[in-house]
Amino acid sequence: MDLLFNVRDRGETRLRLVSKPEPLAADLLAHLGLKLPTRPKIIENVVEKNRL
Asked: Are the beta carbons of 37 and 17 closer than 8 angstroms?
Protein backbone atom coordinates (compact mmCIF):
# COMPACT_ATOMS: atom_id res chain seq x y z
CA MET A 1 0.00 0.00 0.00
CA ASP A 2 1.31 3.47 -0.81
CA LEU A 3 0.35 6.53 1.23
CA LEU A 4 0.91 9.95 -0.31
CA PHE A 5 1.46 13.02 1.85
CA ASN A 6 1.76 16.61 0.76
CA VAL A 7 4.63 18.15 2.71
CA ARG A 8 4.71 21.91 2.77
CA ASP A 9 8.29 22.52 1.62
CA ARG A 10 9.07 19.21 -0.07
CA GLY A 11 6.05 18.48 -2.24
CA GLU A 12 4.63 14.96 -2.32
CA THR A 13 6.12 12.26 -0.09
CA ARG A 14 5.31 8.59 -0.62
CA LEU A 15 5.31 6.06 2.24
CA ARG A 16 5.16 2.41 1.21
CA LEU A 17 3.69 -0.04 3.77
CA VAL A 18 3.42 -3.82 3.92
CA SER A 19 0.71 -5.45 6.04
CA LYS A 20 -0.04 -9.01 7.13
CA PRO A 21 -3.10 -10.74 5.67
CA GLU A 22 -5.95 -12.09 7.78
CA PRO A 23 -5.47 -15.78 8.74
CA LEU A 24 -7.91 -17.11 6.13
CA ALA A 25 -6.35 -14.99 3.39
CA ALA A 26 -2.89 -16.17 4.49
CA ASP A 27 -4.04 -19.82 4.21
CA LEU A 28 -5.42 -19.19 0.72
CA LEU A 29 -2.19 -17.51 -0.39
CA ALA A 30 -0.15 -20.41 1.02
CA HIS A 31 -2.29 -22.98 -0.85
CA LEU A 32 -1.78 -20.98 -4.05
CA GLY A 33 1.97 -20.89 -3.44
CA LEU A 34 2.04 -17.10 -3.25
CA LYS A 35 4.27 -15.20 -0.85
CA LEU A 36 3.74 -11.60 0.17
CA PRO A 37 6.71 -9.32 0.74
CA THR A 38 7.84 -8.82 4.32
CA ARG A 39 9.26 -5.36 3.67
CA PRO A 40 8.60 -2.58 1.17
CA LYS A 41 10.28 -2.70 -2.23
CA ILE A 42 12.27 0.40 -3.11
CA ILE A 43 11.23 1.71 -6.51
CA GLU A 44 13.19 4.54 -8.07
CA ASN A 45 11.44 7.04 -10.33
CA VAL A 46 12.29 6.21 -13.92
CA VAL A 47 10.77 9.34 -15.43
CA GLU A 48 11.89 12.78 -14.31
CA LYS A 49 9.24 15.36 -13.61
CA ASN A 50 9.14 18.37 -15.92
CA ARG A 51 10.40 21.44 -14.15
CA LEU A 52 9.06 24.77 -15.35
From this structure: no
